[in-house]
Amino acid sequence: MTDTDLFRMLAAGDRSAFDLVHQRFSGLVARQVHRAIGHRGDIDDACQNAWVLIWRTAHRFDPTRGSAAAWISMLARRAAIDSLRARPRWVLASTMSEDGGPDAYAPPTPAKSGGESTETSSSLRRAFDRLPQAQQTVLSLACSHGLSARQIAEAQGLPLHLVHRLTARGLHRLRGMIDAATIAAA
Fold it and tell me: How far is CA 76 from CA 19, 47, 72, 80, 151, in A?
C-alpha cells in the first residue's frame, strides 16, 4: 500500500490506517523531534503532539507537493517547536545549563497560603497548566466531565490508544511535577 493510499484512508478517519502510518513513520517522527528538542524528557510529549497533529490534518496531505515522509517531518518539527515554546522559561534555562539539573533553575516558589488544600489546589493548577494542550484536554474531559476514554476518543476524533497514552503521560507528568514541588517546598 502506498503512502498516498494510506493518507487517503487516514483522512477518511480510518484508525487502522493510523496504526500503519504510525508503524511506518514512528522512527522518523522521533528523530525529527529529537533533533529539534535535543533532550529526552520532552520527546515523548512532542511526539504525541505530532501524532495528534498528523491525525487531525491528514486531509491536508497533498502528494503532488511532496512525499508523506517530508510532510510528516514538517509536522513533527512543528510539534517539537510548539512544545519548546509552551515551556516556562525556567525549564528552558535548566535544559540549557551545563549541569542540567532542573533544581538549578527551580520554578518560583509560591507564597505559603493559609490552608493546605488551597496550596495543593494551586500547585495542581500550575502543574496542569504546564501540560501540553492535548494532555490537558484529555484529562479535563476525563476528570471534570467524567467521560470515558472511548467517549473522549469519539469526541476529539482521536484513536483510542492515543487517548490512553495522552492520559497516562499527562498523569505521569502531573505526578512528577507535584512531587518535585512538594520536595522543593520541604
Answer: 17, 7, 6, 6, 27
> CA-to-CA distance for 138 and 134, rounded, in angstroms?
6
Threshold 0.90, pTM exceeds: no
Work out the angle at residue 142's Cα, subtended by the Cα atoms of residues 109 and 175, and round it to the nearest 5 degrees: 30
Of 181, 109, 99, 172, which Cα lies nearest the Cα of 135? 172
Using one digit for the tens of pLDDT, what is the confidence trace for 35-52?
Answer: 888 765 678 888 998 999
Low-confidence ranges of the chain (pLDDT < 50): 89-114
- 24: closest CA among 38, 36, 10, 35? 10
Domain ranges of the chain: 1-87, 91-186
Domain 91-186 sits in CATH at 1.10.10.10
- Classify 1-87 by CATH class: mainly alpha
**Which string of b and e fits 136-169 if b means at least 16 CB within 10 Å?**
ebbbebbeeeebebeebbeebebbeebbebbbeb
CA distance 68 to 74: 10
Residue 103 to residues 93, 97, 107, 109, 144: CA-CA distances in angstroms?
11, 11, 8, 12, 32
Scan for cell 495522552, then name that residue. Answer: 166
